[in-house]
TrEMBL record, chain A:
Annotated ranges, domain Roadblock/LAMTOR2: 14-102
Name of the protein in its database record: Roadblock/LAMTOR2 domain-containing protein
Pfam short name (any one): Robl_LC7
Lineage top rank: taxon: Bacteria
Gene3D superfamilies named in the record: Dynein light chain 2a, cytoplasmic
Length: 127, 181
């Protein structure tokens, strides 16, 4: 974990992680990372948090260049539809710091609802 | 017409993104974000990959892929190494231990290097002459590898082109050898 990260950011990230885990039906784990791939906070049980944090930032960054190259603008939410669940990745800003939210759910989660909750959390973080 | 894939790797700050931008004929695709790691003296860092293309003589289009430098992105190293036809390892002689960097990246890409050529470019030798190219070559030999080692300034297009040419020359030599055996 990056020791340089501001404590306020870490605390806020923990609150967001806890809230998302509680508010999304079927959520298994939530991870918040800095845009350069350091874990900020997690809730539930993500496996191997440092690896996942780096992967989360890579997904967010690659999605952004793919969206831009395809003339689709800025990506909101990236969805990985996997055999045993969904993975949602959403970039956000908190007081000028770029962060990435990663929510992992079971197959039973309602995808649209989960995306809505993640997007709302990202917007709230930016207020 | 072939379209070889070359992968640029090496420690953070060695200039992978800069090298690809210096050589690419197309605007390079970069995934830089603001760096939050105070132990790295740079404002931005690659978290996904870099991509560029360069057309060489004979209509050969070389695809240039850059990896993130930090070890926590080692999963991207493995993804980007798939089907690579050459590896360009960039070292930064101003870092604490360039020999350790050499060992780390050659080990990480060891599987690829069993049948793929590699060239090593060493940057900032002018301001940081130690370890010398000879010392790095010795280290390389101890690790059981023989690869060309060149002093480079990755901001200079010609220097990057030389690295790419050197990797491709090895590739051609191997392909020629294969036809002979």
């Amino acid at each position: 974990m990056n020791p340089e990260v501001d404590e306020t950011l870490r605390l806020r990230a923990q609150t967001v992680a806890d809230e998302l885990l509680a508010r999304i039906d079927g959520a298994r784990a939530v991870l918040l990372a800095t845009a350069d791939g350091f874990a900020l906070a997690s809730a539930g049980e993500p496996r191997d948090t440092p690896q996942l944090a780096a992967m989360t930032s890579a997904i967010a960054a690659i999605s952004q260049v793919v969206s831009q190259t395809s003339d689709l603008g800025e990506p909101q939410c990236v969805v990985v539809d996997a055999s045993r669940g969904f993975l949602l990745v959403r970039s956000a800003q908190y007081r000028g710091t770029a962060v990435v939210i990663n929510v992992m759910t079971t197959r039973q989660a309602l995808l649209g609802m989960a995306m809505h909750v993640v997007n709302a959390a990202a917007r709230e973080l930016e207020l | 017409m072939t379209e070889p894939k070359l992968v640029f790797t090496g420690p953070p700050g060695a200039g992978k993104t800069t090298a690809i931008a210096a050589l690419s004929d197309i605007p390079p695709i970069v995934t830089d974000v603001r760096n939050s790691d105070a132990s790295l003296a740079k404002t931005h860092t690659t978290v996904g990959m870099d991509y560029g293309e360069v057309k060489l003589a004979g209509d050969e289009r070389v695809r240039l892929f850059g990896t993130p430098g930090q070890e926590r992105f080692a999963f991207m190293w493995r993804i980007l190494a798939r089907n690579a036809m050459g590896l360009v390892l960039l070292l930064d002689n101003s870092r604490a231990d360039p020999r350790a960097d050499l060992r780390l990246y050659l080990q990480a890409f060891g599987e690829l290097l069993r049948d793929t050529p590699c060239v090593i470019g060493v940057g900032r030798l002018d301001t940081h002459p130690e370890p010398s190219l000879d010392a790095l070559a010795d280290e390389l030999e101890q690790l059981g590898w023989v690869f060309p080692l060149l002093a480079v300034d990755v901001r200079q297009r010609d220097d990057v082109l030389l690295l790419v040419d050197t990797a491709l020359a090895q590739l051609e030599a191997r392909q020629w050898q294969d036809t002979q055996s």
